[in-house]
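Good morning,

Attaching, inline, the backbone tokens for the sequence recovery test we're adding to the shared suite. The designed sequence is right after.
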């Protein structure tokens, strides 16, 4: 794994900069001058955010979960302003993160192979029209590929959702599409026939027929899952399913049917912290 770090590397960095800071303190006291100024500049650059270190069986690959990219709805963890979303994408580029398709993450997870350094995955749930209007132009600008999880009963059916033509355009732009069920119910409480036939098999068949692509991935509506729901997702042919389990760390032992994600709000400070694995459980 290129993105693996020795478990003690983070500690080593902290100790290293503590020593440098101590030396600098001495220098400041003894001989303030141009050398000190240069040292301060150097330190401020080198203490820029770093990804948290991975251990032997853990690696860091935040899978970001977006719902609305909107300038009209009340902002919150599920509604990100367009300008904030653009800043987030620009920050990833400026800080050398590699936005990879979910399929690449899945391949690495299941074949135990490497990912590019500093990987980030972008996911969009619920087939909202603002994905097409506000997110797609920014994704195209940065050449980022995301996956869109679509509840098929929503397509063309109510205000504020994407049409099949919009979804085809996403596919043409290299975006990935996954199923988010048909009617977005709580899968743990619906009848078995509805679960298997309508929500799992039916949604996949509709997406495949309408878009002419193979659908391999699923996202649990509302994150609701149970042992029998996971079993149903497996039996109906999906290769992997994403949850709302909140963890940016992944493991080669991770169940591909319980893949964790994180969601981000409108605070750039929080975004940078979350991407770098800091203060992961602070509120929005
Ligand atoms: Zn949803």
């Amino acid at each position: 794994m290129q993105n693996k770090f020795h478990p003690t590397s983070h500690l080593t960095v902290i100790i290293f900069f503590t020593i440098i800071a101590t030396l600098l303190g001495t220098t400041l006291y003894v001989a303030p001058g141009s050398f000190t100024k240069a040292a301060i500049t150097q330190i401020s650059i080198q203490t820029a955010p770093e990804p948290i270190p991975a251990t032997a069986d853990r690696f860091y690959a935040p899978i970001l979960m977006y719902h609305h990219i909107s300038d009209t709805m009340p902002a919150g963890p599920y509604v990100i302003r367009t300008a904030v979303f653009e800043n987030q994408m620009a920050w990833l580029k400026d800080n050398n993160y590699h936005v990879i398709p979910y399929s690449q993450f899945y391949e690495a997870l299941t074949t135990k192979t490497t990912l590019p350094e500093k990987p980030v995955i972008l996911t969009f749930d619920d087939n909202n029209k603002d994905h097409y209007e506000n997110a797609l132009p920014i994704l195209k600008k940065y050449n980022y590929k995301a996956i869109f999880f679509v509840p098929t009963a929503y397509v063309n059916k109510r205000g504020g959702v994407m049409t099949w033509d919009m979804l085809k355009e996403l596919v043409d732009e290299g975006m990935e599409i996954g199923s988010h069920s048909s009617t977005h119910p709580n899968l743990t409480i619906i009848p078995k026939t509805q679960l298997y036939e309508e929500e799992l098999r039916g949604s996949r068949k509709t997406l495949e027929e309408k878009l002419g692509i193979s659908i391999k991935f699923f996202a649990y509506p509302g994150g609701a899952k149970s042992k029998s729901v996971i079993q149903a997702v497996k039996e109906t042919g999906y290769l992997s399913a994403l949850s709302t389990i909140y963890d940016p760390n992944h493991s080669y032992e991770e169940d591909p049917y319980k893949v964790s994600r994180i969601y981000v709000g409108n605070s750039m400070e929080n975004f940078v912290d979350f991407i770098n694995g800091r203060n992961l459980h602070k509120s929005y």
